[in-house]
DNA sequence: ACGCGTTATATTCAGTTGGAATATAATCGG
DNA sequence: CCGATTATATTCCAACTGAATATAACGCGT
C-alpha cells in the first residue's frame, strides 16, 4: 500500500497515533435592551465548550448538549464558524481540533446550574460600537498606540504596511469604518500586543478599559469571528429575526440591527428595505409603550424563507 | 469535578474514548479552456484526501501535503469549506470528522504519481451549465422526474412543498435561475433519489447522462459545496484571479467568470465593473491571437488586496 | 382644551448603479 | 478593398439608495 492509497483510505483500521480530540465551542448571542450579549462561563472566563463524544449524534447536537448542560440555555439557530487546529499546544500526545459555532437565541431562560453570564459583546470589544460616532477609545487610545507600534520597526516598508493595515481596519485617514472587519481589528491589536491575550505571562501594558475584557485561550478571537460573521450575514439573510421576540415594532427591529452592526441606519430607508422585501407582516395591533405615537406591531413572515433566496449581485450576471 | 467543569476542560488528560480521526478533503479547482475542472483520484473516484496527522503543522499544511503527495499538484489559494461528522458510519469504534477545503490553482503541473485526473465540474453536475441557456437535461429529464417525485406522496402539503423547493432550486415556473444554489440542487436530487449516491446498493434508476458522474461517499456533495462557495465568492472578492494566468485579456477573464458561474454576462457591463473597481492594469502589450482586433493584455493589480476591502451593502447602513 | 415633545409613518428628490443596446475601431482573410 | 470577427467606447433608461422633509397620532403638563 503506497502513501497515496494510505491517504485516501477512510477512517477504519488506523492506529491511535493520529487520533485527535475535537472540541465544540459556541458563540451564543442574544439581545439585551441595548446591546448584543454573548454567553460565557464566568469561572472559566470562557465560551461554553466541550469535547465531541461518541454519544453525540452529530457535531451540532453535541454542541447543544454542552451548552445546555453548562448554561441551561437551549439553542435554536446554529451555524458553523470555523475549524482550528493550530493551537499553541505543540508536542502534546494528542492534538485538539476546535470546531466553533455561532448560535442565535433569546435570553429569556433562567440562568443554568453554573451561573452563566450574559455580557455585552462591546465589553469585549469596546472599539466596535460606533452607534454614537467613533468611540473615544479608538481616537484617544488605540490610534496613537497603533501608530507607536507601526513606528516601532526599523524597516520602512514594514512601517508603511502597518500604518496601511491599521488605517484600513479602523478607518483612519478619512477611510470609512467597515463594521465587518471585527476579526481583522482584533488580530491587528493582537499583533500590536494591545490585547491581553498577546502578552500573557509577560508584562501587561493593555488595560481592560482600553482593550476590553479578555478570555482564555483564543476564545475572544472566536467571538470576533462570530461578530464578523453575523454583521456580514444580516445583510443578505434574514437572521436578525432569530434574535427578535415574536412580535416587535419596526424601530425595535432597527435598534437590533444597529446594535449588531455597531452603527446607525436611517429610519425611512430601513423601513423601505424591510417592507419591499416583505420580511414582516402587521399583526394589526399597536403598542403605546414607545412614548409617542403608537407603533404598529409586526411579526416575521417565515414564509419568505420558502419563497425567496437572496442572491448577491456584485457581478453583472445577466438575468432572465 | 462536575460535568460542566469537565466540559470546559481543554484536551489534556481525557481518555482515548472520545478520540476521533480527522480527514482533510480538498476540492481543487483549475481552469480548462472552456470549463472549471476539479482534481480527482480516478482509481478511488474520490477527491484528494488524507488524515490529519501529528506531523502536520496545521490543517492547511496537512491538506497541502496530501494533495501534493497524491496528485503532484502544489496548492496556492486555500479556504475552508465545512466540517462534517455525521457520516453514515455509526457504531464504529472511532468516528471520522471531515474538514473540507476549497483550493484554487493552475492546471499547469504535470500529472502526479497516481494519474490524477482533471474533470470538468459539469461532468459531475450537467444541470449546472447554463451558458447556452437552460440545458436540455433540466427541461427534459430532471423537471419531469422531480414532478414525479413531488407527486409520489399522499400528503398534499408535502407535495406542494416539494414542488416549491424544486421550483426555487431549478428556476421552474418563471423563477430565475440562481447559480449559487448548486448545493441545494444536489441535495434535492439526492432526496428525490435522482443521483446515484442516493440509491447505492439498491436499484439504480439514475443514469450518468442525466445525473452526472458520481463519486464515493459524500465527495460529490463536498464538490457541490465548493462550487456554491466559489460562485458566491467571485461576486465580492477578487478570487477569480487565482485561476487566471499572470497575463490575460478581458474577454478571457470574462469567459472564466462565465465558466464558474455557469451563465453569461454582458461584455460592456463586465468591463465597466472590472475597470471601475481598478482590479486590473494594462501591460501595454496586445495579442492578436484572439481572431479580430488585437486585445489589450492585462494583469491583476495585487495592490487592491491591500487598498480596499469590499463590503456588502444590503442594509442601509449610514456611512460617514 | 391646547400646545408641545415624542415617536410613527409617508413622501420626495437627487445621485448612483446596473442592465441592455448601440456605435466605432482595428485586425485578418479573401 | 470588403466583410467577418473581435475589441473598445458610448448612450439610455429603469431601479436602487442615501438623505431630507412632511404629516400623523399619542401622552403630558398647563
Q: How would you characterize the overall build of this protein?
A:
- 2 copies of one chain form a homodimer.
- With 320 residues, chain A is an alpha+beta fold.
- Chain A has helices spanning 3-8, 59-71, 121-124, 136-151, 156-170, 182-191, 208-211, 219-233, 250-261, 267-276, 304-307; strands spanning 20-31, 36-40, 49-51, 77-84, 95-104, 117-120, 280-287, 295-300.
- In chain A, the strands form 2 sheets. In chain A, strands 1, 2, 3, 4, 5 and 6 form a 6-stranded mixed sheet that branches. A two-stranded antiparallel sheet of chain A has the order 7-8.
- Chains A and B meet through helix 1, strand 1, strand 3, helix 2 and strand 4 of A and helix 1, strand 1, strand 3, helix 2 and strand 4 of B.
- Chain A binds a DNA duplex (30 and 30 nucleotides) through helix 10.
Mind summarizing the main beta sheet of chain A?
Answer: 6 strands, mixed
Q: Supply Rg of chain A.
A: 22 Å
Helix fraction of chain A by DSSP (H/I, runs of at least 4)? 25-40%
Question: What overall geometry of chain A do the principal axes of the alpha carbons give?
Answer: globular
Q: What attributes does this structure have?
A:
alpha+beta, homodimer, six-stranded mixed sheet, DNA-binding
SSE layout:
The structure is a homodimer of 320-residue chains.
Chain A: H1 3-8, E1 20-31, E2 36-40, E3 49-51, H2 59-71, E4 77-84, E5 95-104, E6 117-120, H3 121-124, H4 136-151, H5 156-170, H6 182-191, H7 208-211, H8 219-233, H9 250-261, H10 267-276, E7 280-287, E8 295-300, H11 304-307
Helix pairs in contact in A: 4-5, 5-6, 6-8
Chain A binds a DNA duplex (30 and 30 nucleotides) through helix 10.
Amino acid at each position: 500500500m503506497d502513501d497515496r492509497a494510505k491517504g485516501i483510505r477512510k477512517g477504519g483500521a488506523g492506529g491511535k497515533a493520529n487520533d485527535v480530540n475535537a472540541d465544540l465551542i459556541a458563540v451564543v448571542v442574544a439581545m439585551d435592551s441595548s446591546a448584543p450579549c454573548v454567553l460565557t462561563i464566568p469561572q472559566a472566563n470562557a465560551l461554553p465548550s466541550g469535547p465531541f463524544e461518541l454519544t453525540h449524534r452529530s457535531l451540532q447536537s453535541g454542541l447543544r448538549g454542552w451548552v445546555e448542560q453548562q448554561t441551561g440555555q437551549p439553542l435554536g439557530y446554529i451555524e458553523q464558524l470555523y475549524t482550528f487546529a493550530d493551537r499553541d499546544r505543540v508536542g502534546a500526545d494528542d492534538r485538539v481540533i476546535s470546531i466553533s459555532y455561532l448560535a442565535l437565541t433569546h435570553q429569556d431562560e433562567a440562568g443554568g446550574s453554573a451561573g452563566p453570564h450574559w455580557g455585552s459583546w462591546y465589553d469585549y470589544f469596546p472599539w466596535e460600537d460606533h452607534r454614537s460616532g467613533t468611540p473615544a477609545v479608538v481616537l484617544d487610545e488605540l490610534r496613537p498606540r497603533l501608530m507607536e507600534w507601526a513606528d516601532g520597526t526599523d524597516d520602512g516598508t514594514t512601517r508603511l504596511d502597518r500604518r496601511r493595515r491599521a488605517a484600513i481596519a479602523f478607518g483612519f485617514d478619512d477611510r470609512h469604518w467597515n463594521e465587518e472587519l471585527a476579526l481583522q481589528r482584533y488580530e491587528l491589536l493582537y499583533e500590536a500586543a494591545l490585547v491581553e491575550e498577546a502578552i500573557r505571562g509577560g508584562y501587561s501594558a493593555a488595560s481592560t478599559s482600553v482593550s476590553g475584557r479578555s478570555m482564555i485561550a483564543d476564545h475572544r478571537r472566536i467571538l470576533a469571528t462570530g461578530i464578523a460573521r453575523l454583521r456580514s450575514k444580516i445583510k443578505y439573510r434574514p437572521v436578525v429575526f432569530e434574535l427578535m421576540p415574536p412580535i416587535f415594532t419596526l424601530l425595535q427591529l432597527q435598534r437590533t440591527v444597529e446594535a449588531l452592526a455597531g452603527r446607525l441606519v436611517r429610519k425611512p430607508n430601513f423601513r423601505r428595505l424591510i417592507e419591499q422585501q416583505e420580511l414582516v407582516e402587521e399583526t394589526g395591533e399597536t403598542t403605546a409603550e414607545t412614548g409617542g405615537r403608537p407603533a404598529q406591531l409586526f411579526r416575521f413572515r417565515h414564509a419568505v424563507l420558502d419563497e425567496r433566496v437572496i442572491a448577491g449581485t456584485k457581478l453583472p450576471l445577466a438575468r432572465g
